[in-house]
Specification:
By secondary structure, the chain is mainly alpha-helical. It has 17 helices and no strands. It folds into two domains: about 220 residues, Hypothetical protein af1432; about 45 residues, no CATH class. Helices cover about 60% and strands about 0% of the residues.
């Protein structure tokens, strides 16, 4: 008698495109495991990511606006969920594997630092081997989660996470979707957050771009997603004119928001804080939790310190910094 998983795998064979990555064709895990009776391998990966500690910490990691006091600004977690929604829409329309797509989307930023790309740039300058959040996301799943055991994800999910930003494209179309869904998500929600912060208004976006891509966030997302669906085949792609418009919009956002002094006024403090934490823990590695002392023994102190700081949420890093460097007042 067939298991629920086997019935679902049969369903994938019947319904998905011949370009889709089927669960039964997965390249497998580093440590082989017995198949689950209910879930496919990609469904298991999705569940492991959702339940891991690194995923939960994303709710207190900066997207663009550092330590926002408002409830409606994006965090790294809400960004991840928006990427997942856009990616699944594209995967469904192209009859690709939604489970694989979702697992990659949910795991793509697990290794991101506190304080967004400012934190990433700081660690990249400090760490001898450099720091790239997409590589750290894979390291999280392989070595750092579950006290060093890792999540033992499938190769397809790890490859999609590793290739979601730049460099070589993912070898699955599902992985390629994440790279483009990430772009669609962040450019549009960053505009939304910037408008909420009073940094810009929709009307500040060049009219030519609004006429091309859409006059609102939802219209732009709708246009870009449909453009990807209509232009994808053996590769996941936008049309050339749509991608050029996206690049122009990104250039506009770079100067209007990403480098805006109002948005980045606290970045200098965040970078200084990360520098001090890094220096302190490289000089006092015994002050780190035991799991990072084990990493230090295997991979060196600086690698362990980088892992520890990268895993911190914004809130936790500020708490630790205050405990180490800010005088504490005696309570009566």
């Amino acid at each position: 008698m067939q298991s629920i998983r086997e019935r679902y795998e049969d369903k994938e064979r019947l319904l998905l495109s011949d370009k889709a990555c089927l669960a039964i064709h997965s390249r497998g895990r580093t440590v082989p495991e017995e198949p689950d009776d209910i879930r496919t391998c990609f469904q298991r990966d999705r569940d492991r990511i959702i339940h891991c500690q690194s995923f939960r910490r994303l709710k207190h990691k900066t997207q663009v606006f550092l330590a926002p006091s408002g409830d409606h600004y994006r965090t790294r977690l809400t960004h991840t969920l928006e990427v997942s929604q856009i990616a699944r829409t594209i995967a469904r329309a192209l009859q690709l594997n939604e489970d694989l797509t979702e697992a990659i989307a949910l795991g793509h930023d697990l290794g991101h630092t506190p304080f967004g790309h400012a934190g990433e740039r700081a660690l990249n300058e400090l760490c001898p081997s450099g720091f790239r959040h997409y590589e750290q996301s894979v390291r999280v799943t392989e070595y750092l989660e579950k006290d060093g055991i890792g999540l033992n994800l499938t190769d397809e999910v790890k490859n999609g996470i590793l290739c979601h930003t730049r460099g070589e494209e993912a070898y699955t179309l599902e992985g390629q979707i994440i790279r483009i869904a990430d772009k669609i998500a962040y450019i549009n929600h960053d505009i939304d957050d910037a408008a909420r912060a009073g940094v810009l208004q929709e009307e500040d976006i060049p009219l030519s771009l609004r006429l091309k891509l859409g006059m609102s966030k939802s219209a732009r997302i709708d246009y870009m997603v449909k453009n990807v669906i209509e232009n994808s085949g053996d590769k996941i792609r936008m049309s050339e004119d749509c991608y050029q418009a996206f690049l122009e919009l990104h250039d506009f956002m770079f100067y209007a928001v990403y480098k805006n002094p109002v948005c980045k006024s606290e970045e200098v403090k965040a970078v200084s804080m990360i520098n001090k934490l890094y220096q302190y823990y490289t000089e006092n590695p015994e002050a780190m939790p035991e799991e990072y002392l084990n990493i230090a023994q295997k991979d060196g102190t600086e690698r362990a310190v980088c892992d520890y700081i990268a895993g911190m949420s914004d809130n936790y890093s500020v708490k630790i910094f205050n405990r180490l460097f800010v005088p504490q007042f005696w309570l009566e």
